[in-house]
Each structure stands twice: as C-alpha cells, then as structure tokens.
Write a structure and sequence with these properties.
The complex is a heterodimer of chains A (378) and B (92).
Chain A (H helix, E strand, L loop, with lengths): L14 E3 L12 E3 L10 H14 L8 E5 L3 H13 L2 E7 L4 H9 L3 E5 L4 H15 L4 E2 L6 H18 L5 E5 L4 H13 L4 E7 L3 H6 L18 E5 L1 H15 L5 H19 L27 H9 L25 H8 L12 E7 L8 E6 L2
Helix pairs in contact in A: 1-2, 1-5, 5-6, 8-9
Chain B lengths: L2 E4 L13 E4 L4 H11 L3 H5 E2 L2 E2 L3 E5 L2 E2 L15 E6 L7
Parallel strand pairs in B: 1-7
Antiparallel strand pairs in B: 1-2, 3-4, 5-6, 5-7
Classes of the chains: A alpha/beta (378), B alpha+beta (92).
Chain lengths: 378, 92
C-alpha cells in the first residue's frame, strides 16, 4: 500500500474479529485497531480534522501557534500534523503525565507546559485558556468542544465500521472528549437506526473523584446524551483484567481503555442473553451475506475525503489502496501507544482523563449483529 | 432488600466517612429516601427538583441510571449502586 504522505495514510484501520473472547457464536466481537494510524492512536483523526477546519476557517496559516490542553495522545497527534503543516505546537498537560508521553511530544517538536497534577485535566484546560487569553494570536483547537473532533469520526470511523461490518448491532467506545462516540454514533444511527451506541466510562482512582466538586463536574461540550443507548462505568480492575484477556486470548496488546470497552461490550452481551434476546441466526463474518441489514454503503471514508482535499494542494493518488472487499491487508500489530498505557502501572495513575476506553464494536443481541470496541486517551 | 451503595469521597462527611453503605428501596428514588433517613442531607446533594443533579452520575450495577429509568430505575436485592461526580461525559 502506498501513500504520498503520512497524513494520507490516516484512517482505514483494520477491523479484526475476537473469536476467542466472543461469548458465543451468536455474539461476536470485533476490534478496530486504531493504533494503525500515523502516530499510533485514534486521535490522529481528530487532530487532522480540527487543524484542517481551522485552516478552512482562516484561523491557521503556516507559522501560527496551536495550543491544546491534552493528557497525551491528542497532543502527539496534533504535534505530528502541526509539524507537517508548518505550525508551532504548544501543549498543556498535567505535570504527572508519564515521562514517555512528555518525551514523545518533545520528539515531535511540541512545546510542553505543565499544569498542577492535583487539578487533573480540568486544570490543564484552565491553564490553556489563560494562555490563550494572554496570546490572542494562538489558536486553541479545544478537542472537548470542537465539532471537527466528532466530525472526524462521523466522516471516517463511522463509514469505515459500517463498510466493514454492515451487520453491526452495537458500537462500544470509551468516553473522554466524547468525539468518537458522538461522531460514530450519529453516523451509525443515520444508517442503522437500531444500532446501540454504548459508552464505556473509565472509573478513575479515588484521587480524581476525591478532588471533584459535585457542582463543578466536567462535561465536554461535544457530549449529547441522546446519541447514546446506555453508558457503563468500568472499574479499573475489570479494565485491566480485560486488557490482559485481550492479549492472552487474542494476541492483541492494547491499552487499559480498550480493556474497559471490552468489559462493557461483554456486559452488553450478557445482558442481552439474560433478557432472552439472543440472536437466532449466527453472525458469521464481515461478509454481509444472509444478513437482513441494508446493503453496505459505499466506502467513502477518510482517504477519499482526503483525496478531495489533496486535489487542491497536490496530485491525486489514484486508486488501489485497498484490496478486494475493502479490507486492508497486513498483520495485526501491537498497538504501541496502548502498550505503553498498560505498562504505565496499574491504572489511571494520576488524574484521570488520561485513559479513555478504546473502541470495540458490535455485540449481538438482535441477531446478525456484532459489537465493536474502541478506546482512547485525550 | 439490601442495596450496596458506594459513596464518593466528597459525600463521605455525610456517611461518617463510610465508603460503602447499605440501603433499601424498590426504586432508586426510594433508595435515596432511605439513605437520607440514615444520613440526613445526602438526598439534597444527589437530587434537585426531582432529578439527579447535573454533575452527579449514579450507576446501577455499573450502568448509568439515566439510561435505565433515572430515579425510577427498579432495584433488586444485591444490586450495587455507585455514586460518582462527573469527570467527563456527564449528563448535561
């Protein structure tokens, strides 16, 4: 597979089955490997879309400074895009962020400012807002409220999922900025009204909640409760156990947030079975044969869209990036970023919002359905 | 009917620093009423105008009660209820 530049390789990540973790032949789980994105996380999608939108809005031009409060992955993704597009990148992150993430950001050329660890991500947001006021020429993309974040998933992740798994019944993803759930959720609902959109919310350590004032909770501006079917709080130990299951049973070395999403997906599956709504037909593979689902939509996700963008800035790439059937080839690779998360000790060390469950999608229940899983950091 | 309720740090001043307390009720609303009798003042911190406060998240067996009936969510013996402040993605 050939791409003209790193940004052109964004998206189009593989969806892989989890046959050993799927609870039954009727309930099949699939995981979308977002580590296949350029910097190794799903945040590349949002970073690209937010910067592209800011350029369209005339907010950014080469030489400008981008400012963002982040716990890691978004900063790394923004730093990568900023480097390629000629912007200076400034990140604000809690001072207790892992050394590895700090180093990664520095290697990508980002300038890092630290906020008090005790204040968590909320404090990073406050510091970033203050810096933005002091530097009015800087552009704060603000992933928690930037609609381009959710749109990235509406235009890429959602269409990719539906194209690869037309029989999808559930989509399970982590809840952080909520961009993934809002974007994918809206897209899937428009094309499969019965799909269940399930949020897996990491349950942070006592430190985070202990500091939280009940009257000043944090609700990202992007969040729209009506998009969700339900929402699970996933305890740290359960997320860690599922993360290990994923490695031991399926050979996928993912992060703790992916484990959280997997836990929620399995919970949904059990709930469906207990309710006696187990499917009567076996959902086999990504092949839509025998399904009552509508025909698979034309694959029109990120690359096609980016090609349109590229048309105005360079030669088009032409066809042939996907094999027959639209499924990417290649081996399953360890999600390196997530692997780091696992080795970062225990679980949400520090101040939460660092881990937002990965996404897995599709969980049976209504018949020919498959859940999908996913997760992320902010 | 015993329901186990996990209390966040910020509210433990009302529960004598107890992290986990027991309550009863057929619905979440009943449970809150029962808890308030045991720990006066806790209902006011959880409910406002007949609805859960905006930045309070309550999970019934790890599922957000806002999606399973809210204060009218049905409870069963042995259920676990967890009260948490919203960290992200709380209800608007």
């Amino acid at each position: 597979m050939r791409y003209d530049s790193l940004l052109d390789s964004l998206g189009g990540t593989p969806l892989v089955g989890l046959p050993r973790l799927s609870p039954s032949p009727e309930v099949r789980l699939w995981a979308k490997l977002e580590d296949r994105n350029p910097t190794g996380s799903i945040k590349d999608r949002a970073a690209f879309f937010m910067i592209e939108q800011a350029e369209k809005d005339g907010l950014l031009s080469p030489g400008c400074t981008i400012l963002e409060p982040t716990s890691g992955n978004t900063g790394i993704s923004l730093a990568m895009v900023a480097k390629l597009r000629g912007y200076r990148m400034v990140c604000v992150m809690p001072e207790n962020t892992s050394h590895e993430r700090k180093t990664l950001l520095a290697m990508w050329g980002a300038e890092v400012h630290y906020s008090d660890a005790a204040g968590g991500s909320n404090e990073a947001v406050r510091v970033a807002r203050r810096m933005a006021e002091e530097n009015p020429d800087w552009v704060m993309l603000y992933q928690y409220g930037n609609q381009a974040n959710a749109r990235a998933h509406y235009e890429t992740t959602g269409p990719e999922l539906l194209a690869d798994l037309p029989e999808i019944t559930h989509f399970v993803a982590g809840l952080g900025t909520t961009g993934t759930l809002m974007g994918v959720g809206r897209y899937l609902r428009e094309h499969k009204p019965d799909v269940r959109i399930v949020a897996a919310e990491p349950r942070y350590g006592e430190l985070v909640y202990g500091l939280r004032n009940l009257d000043e909770g944090f609700v990202p501006e992007l969040y729209d409760e009506s998009v969700l079917t339900t929402r699970f709080s996933v305890p740290s130990d359960a997320a860690l156990r599922r993360t290990r299951d994923l490695l031991h049973k399926e050979g996928i070395f993912a992060g703790i947030s992916t484990g959280g999403a997997l836990h929620a997906a399995l919970g949904m599956a059990r709930k469906a079975e207990q309710a006696g709504r187990a499917p009567t037909s076996r959902s086999s593979s990504r092949t839509p044969g025998g399904s009552t689902s509508p025909p698979a939509p034309t694959r029109a996700p990120s690359r096609r869209r980016r090609s349109a963008w590229r048309a105005s800035s360079g030669p088009d790439r032409g066809p042939g990036r996907r094999g027959p059937g639209g499924v990417r080839g290649g081996r399953v690779r360890c999600p390196s970023r997530d692997r780091r998360s696992v080795t970062e000790a225990g679980f949400p060390r520090g101040t939460g919002l660092r881990y937002v469950p990965p996404q897995v999608g599709s969980c049976p229940e209504l018949g020919n359905g498959e859940p999908v899983i996913s997760g992320q950091s902010v | 009917m015993a329901i186990e309720v996990r209390i966040p740090t910020i509210l433990r001043n009302l529960t004598n620093d107890e992290k986990v307390v027991k309550g009863s009720g057929d619905t979440l609303s009943d449970l809150v009423t029962d808890l308030d009798q045991q720990y006066p003042g806790i209902a006011e911190r959880l409910v406002d105008g007949g609805k859960l406060r905006r930045f309070i998240n309550v999970y019934l067996n790890d599922e957000d009660v806002r999606f399973v009936g809210g204060l009218e969510a049905k409870l069963s013996d042995g259920d676990n209820v967890t009260v948490l402040p919203a960290v992200a993605g709380g209800s608007r």
